[in-house]
Amino acid sequence: MAALFLVMLVVAQIAFLVVARTSVGASVDAAVRDAAREPAALEHHRQALSERVATLLPGASLSDVAVHQRADTVIARVAFRWVPPGPDLIPITIVVEAERSIVVPP
């Protein structure tokens, strides 16, 4: 019975982490799309991304939030640690990164 409980606990925590990574991935993708349209305001996009992630995952500790430009692309990167409900089995840091080409108006 105890083994079943532990397996269910691990599966539930993995599910929570997958949902957290997916939701942060959508936020990073949205931030990089916005920054690709307006690359002059990268700091604004970085702050907005930090606020989005903090709203999505209360209690998440952001270790790195960056939005920067390289040549003709914009890259957004978020590294975070979030402890899902329940015991903290192992420390996991999740890194999500997205890259888009800069949009040039006609």
Q: Can you characterise this structure?
A:
It is a single chain. Helix content is 48%, strand content 26%. β1 and β2 form a beta hairpin. The mean pLDDT is 89.
Overall pLDDT confidence: 89
Q: How many strands in all?
A: 3
Fraction of residues in helices? 40-55%
**Which strand order do you get reading across the main beta sheet?**
1-2-3
Q: Characterize the biggest β-sheet.
A: 3 strands, antiparallel
pLDDT < 50 runs, ≥5 residues: none
Question: Can you give keywords for this protein?
Answer:
single chain, 106 residues, alpha+beta, 48% helix
Task: Quickly describe the structure.
The protein is an alpha+beta fold.
Sequence-ordered SSE layout with sheet pairings:
Elements (H helix, E strand, L loop, with lengths): L1 H36 L4 H15 L4 E10 L2 E9 L11 E9 L5
Antiparallel strand pairs: 1-2, 2-3
Helix pairs in contact: 1-2
